[in-house]
Amino acid sequence: MPRYDMRISEKNLLRLAECARNGRVVVFDTETTGCTTYDEICQIAAVEYVNGKLSRTFARYICPTCEMNPFAEMVHGLSLDFLHEHGLEPEEAMRQFFEFVGDDVLLVAHNATFDMRMVRQECRKFGLAFAPQDVETCDTLALSRRLRPDLPSHKLSYLIGALDIDGVNSHDALDDALACAGVFFTFLKQVAKQEQRRATDCGFLV
Question: What is the side-by-side strand order in the sheet with 105-109?
Answer without folding.
Answer: 53-61, 41-50, 24-32, 105-109, 135-139
